[in-house]
Design goal:
The complex is a heterodimer of chains A (120) and B (382). Chain A has helices spanning 2-21, 24-36, 40-43, 55-60, and strands at residues 66-78, 81-92, 95-100, 103-109, 112-118. Chain A has four helices and five strands. Chain A has one domain: NTF2-like, domain 1 (Nuclear Transport Factor 2, Chain: A). With 382 residues, chain B is α/β, with parallel strands linked by helices. In chain B, strands 1-2-3-4 form a four-stranded antiparallel sheet, with no helix packed on it. In chain B, strands 5-6-7-8 form a four-stranded parallel sheet. In chain B, strand 7, helix 8 (298-315) and strand 8 (319-320) form a beta-alpha-beta unit. The longest helix of chain B is centred in the N-terminal third of the chain and has 23 residues, at 5-27. Chain B is globular and about 95 Å long. The termini of chain B are far apart. Classes of the chains: A alpha+beta (120), B alpha/beta (382).
Chain lengths: 120, 382
């Protein structure tokens, strides 16, 4: 009996653990967070195959500004599109600049949702 | 009465004196507008740049004749000869140090097209020398005629220019609406008026590819594209070129990039930008950038500027050599932050007071306008 309870627990934990990877909105949120942190290692597994060549560019686009953070990010998925609200804010010198979040494409590859750039 | 006679005589003389001097003045020939003088004791160089040998200074007020100018017009060859033909003064001076006649017209001043803009032999550092070998305003290569014709076949607008770059390019006083205003004062640069009127109106519209914080990476990232103007997945560069379909793009990167990447990485990115520009039939105009030798990133900036010259040569595209042109300006034409170009305080194009010898933004706009003029004449626009 105990064995079956343990197996059941393991299955539940596994399901919970994989739920992030299975949620396209979560993938986009994680990707955008990694991008503003210029964390190429965190971005790489989240990027779709079609955009692999863009990893270096994607990881370096916020290196010229400081204080980069995402404010009020909320993403919702609808099929292969994830629509986010909120904005990326940054500072250059004494000037603030912002980048509104938009709709993003996602693609499922090897059972995982991957970020695939802006939708459209 | 006799006591008053001397006084009356004095009054008569005083009354007649202005009439006499007026007559003398009227008889003296009016000097041609090419006669000028310096308003302060001024360094004279053997060529149109501060890398040339210094000659004897020009004393304030001494009349000299303008013999010729450089291609830009911001350096003038002045001369004063003795009766035996030997020179009292014979060399080059920047316009901003001279009391130029308001009637002086550069259309009437011969252009020395053969003299170099710098003398690398006088530059002690090997890595800096190549920058002094490159002209401030290059001649336009035949390859650019082909690019222009490609652009015309793609529907580009001959009279539209745009700008691509970081905060220096985003500056509204650089290649901005002031080019479209009627209150310009070109001073002696009358020969640029036609070009100003041809391209000026196109600079009323902002460039979505010129933004604070922009780098040679960022310009390809749709995240940085203004969503009010750009399509999804469209980079700022593609967006700008689609919106305006220009014939010329002034591309100014470096001061920001130098803080974040190597010269080789910068070269890779610049080549990508150049290729993306050429394939759309747009003539890319690169710019070297000004930098202060006392700044932390001086040597890196020299490498970046050398890379810009190299990329320009590879693609036979024009490179404005702002680095060399800005050397003689106070603080190299830079603001106190040693990054951005200094403003004159005027918000119109003003070239009747020698601002191009004092303020970086005035110089940069003049060089850009001269480059537009060279391109327009060479490829046959308008």
């Amino acid at each position: 009996m105990l064995k079956w309870i343990l197996i059941g627990l393991i299955l539940v934990v596994s399901a919970c653990a994989s739920s992030d990877g299975g949620d396209p909105a979560k993938t986009v949120e994680q990707y955008l967070q990694a991008k503003v942190e210029a964390d190429a290692d965190a971005m790489r597994p989240l990027l779709c195959a079609a955009m692999e060549a863009d990893l270096n560019l994607e990881a370096r686009t916020f290196e010229s500004v400081s204080g980069v953070e995402i404010k009020d990010m909320a993403c919702k998925s609808d099929g292969n599109t994830v629509t986010c609200t909120g904005e990326i804010v940054a500072t250059y010198g004494t000037e603030n600049t912002s980048f509104p979040l938009t709709a993003y494409s996602v693609a499922q590859e090897d059972g995982e949702w991957k970020y695939c750039g802006e939708a459209g | 009465m006799r006591y008053f006679a001397p006084a009356i005589r004095l009054i008569v003389i005083l009354l007649c004196f202005p009439l006499l001097t007026t007559q003398i003045k009227a008889q003296a020939p009016t000097p041609p507008p090419t006669i000028t003088s310096a308003h302060t004791d001024t360094v004279v160089y053997a060529g149109p740049g501060d890398s040339f040998h210094q000659l004897s200074p020009l004393s304030a007020g001494l009349q000299v004749e303008i013999i010729e100018r450089n291609r830009v017009g911001n350096w003038l060859h002045i001369q004063r000869l003795r009766e035996d033909g030997s020179a009292i003064v014979d060399g080059w001076v920047m316009t901003g140090y001279l009391n130029l006649d308001p009637n002086l017209s550069f259309s009437d001043v011969p252009v020395n097209t053969t003299i170099a803009d710098g003398d690398p032999a006088n530059i002690p550092f090997l890595s800096v020398q190549p920058l002094y070998s490159a002209p401030v305003i290059p001649t336009v290569s035949p390859a650019m005629v082909d690019v222009y014709q490609l652009g015309q076949s793609l529907g580009n607008h001959a009279d539209v220019v745009t700008k691509v770059g970081d905060s220096m390019s985003a500056d509204v006083l650089y290649l901005g609406p002031l080019f479209a205003q009627d209150n310009y004062e070109l001073g002696p640069y009358d020969d640029l008026e036609e070009t100003l009127k041809f391209f000026g109106p196109s600079l009323l519209t902002i460039s979505v590819a010129a933004r604070i914080g922009m780098t040679t990476y960022v310009v390809f990232d749709p995240t940085w594209a203004d969503k009010a103007f750009c399509l999804p997945r469209e980079s700022p560069l593609d967006c700008e070129y689609r919106r305006k379909q220009p014939s010329i793009a002034f591309i100014l990167f470096g001061p920001n990039d130098v803080r974040h990447m190597t010269a080789d990485e910068f070269g890779v990115q610049m080549r990508m930008i150049v290729e993306a520009t050429l394939e759309k039939g747009i003539i890319p105009v690169l710019n070297t950038f000004s930098t202060d030798p006392n700044a932390d990133l001086w040597w890196q900036s020299v490498d970046f500027n050398n890379m810009l010259i190299q990329v320009g040569a590879e693609y036979q595209i024009p490179v404005i050599n702002l680095f060399v042109a800005s050397r003689p300006l106070p603080a190299y034409g830079l603001e106190a932050d040693a990054i951005h170009m200094k403003h004159s305080g005027w918000t119109n194009l003003k070239y009747d007071s020698g601002h191009e010898s004092w303020y970086g933004t005035s110089l940069l706009n003049l060089l850009s306008l001269r480059m537009m003029d060279e391109i327009r004449r060479t490829v046959g626009m308008g």
